[in-house]
Amino acid sequence: MGLFGGIESGGTKFVCMIGSNPDNIIAEQRIPTTNPEETIRQVIEFFNPYVKSKELTAVGIASFGPIDLNPASPTYGFITTTPKEGWKNVDLYGQIQRGLKIPVAFDTDVNAAAFGEQYWQKEKRLLDPFLYMTVGTGIGVGVIVNGSPLHGLIHAETGHIPIPHNWQRDPFPGICPYHGDCLEGLASGISLSRRWGQNPETLPDAHPAWDLEADYIALALVILIYAYSPQQIVLGGGVSQHAGLIQAARSKVQQFNKGYIQSSMIQEKIDNYIHLPALGNRSGALGAIAMAINLAEL
Amino acid sequence: MGLFGGIESGGTKFVCMIGSNPDNIIAEQRIPTTNPEETIRQVIEFFNPYVKSKELTAVGIASFGPIDLNPASPTYGFITTTPKEGWKNVDLYGQIQRGLKIPVAFDTDVNAAAFGEQYWQKEKRLLDPFLYMTVGTGIGVGVIVNGSPLHGLIHAETGHIPIPHNWQRDPFPGICPYHGDCLEGLASGISLSRRWGQNPETLPDAHPAWDLEADYIALALVILIYAYSPQQIVLGGGVSQHAGLIQAARSKVQQFNKGYIQSSMIQEKIDNYIHLPALGNRSGALGAIAMAINLAEL
Q: Do B262 and A66 touch (CB under 8 A)?
């Protein structure tokens, strides 16, 4: 089979990996996200020796977005309206494809993470739909329906949906430069930092921040359950890993559902239904490798 | 090809049709929704002569819900947690299948309506995802991904998602017996009747009810666009047909999006992107006929 590359492009770093599966990653590098020219040049330099030695079959890119996923579009593979300075309308796919001259798979970071969590655990491949929500610096949702990432007009942008905001309990106006108090605006890591004036990792367990955050995550999960009717949800991202947060969010999901959707997955087996990533913080990059393998097999 | 049956089961009536396509419906009957025994008996009596004459190949049911769509479940084909009195845990599929003894297709009323709007307009079959939202007595969303209705844990229950509720502008607590002020609780036809104390059909165009309703429908549409990234949305149901409402909702969608999702379908072609049903109020029953044809062709 040879080797495959995975790139998870994020607002602070590009994680690059080369390998054949999660237990066989032979090279890995974190490249800081500075300007597109410099960052993309370093990404190409990392992979190029393996292209020249003909060991690398294909590469997958798991990108922050929004991105253009329409193969018929003149801007296919571009990052489009991101608030990240310097990265608007950047041809990420094209530059990497032209730099490496091997097949390149391209999708959102969260679609790649969802794909990877399912691909690398064969017993999960029949779960349909299968979701991955990241609550980290930002919030995003990856959706796999019948084995394929959900595209369409663009791709899911569920991180930016409007959600109930109780201004009396939470007078913080939200940080989304587009929508203010959308889900990402109220519940992302950046929102936590700004609302409480400190890095969320330094907020003690008893701080009221965590009960409010569990409420927002549970609201988001209920929306995901009602909208997609998923058979399983992976809750990734740095914020989600705070001790006790996923447990609190699970019981609030049961509470907010009010018994409406009657399923043993919600009422009894919610620990299996909503869980942390099996691949830890590598879901995106390992998902990109899975996408590259999938592309090569087509 | 022979003839096919379509049943749209609703809270007030069961619409039954027999035909081969929207322009060839040879029999139609509206049966009041009383108790399950009486209503289902009348449905079977309507179709039975065509089964006996061997003209009827298959029947489709477009049902109100929630319903059990898991073929492996002992309660496959049941209506499950409906608030409709007497209709909880009713084996709708099984009783009709045993009564008619021909193949029966079964799905939600809104999945059937979405399927029918796409099936009967061949040029729309490649639109993916394709959505149908009804705003009538209740609110529901049908989702077609890659030509198939979205199932999963159960099926989409997007009518019951939590949405922003500005209590100062709208102190009405909502009418959903489960969630109070979910989308259906705040914006369904029943909610309009209770909030304003009159049938929504009698509310004049200038009544503030309609601006509030347009806001709620636009919020729902933005959530659908962000969550599913649909290539087209059909807005059905009685409330949606109020003069000017869809136009108002479309411009509020553009306003609420704040330029985040950059697509000509939203910015320029929103009249084509969000539109009333091509099949009028027959989308559900004609969709059920399309499901029956699809089942017979498998």
A: yes
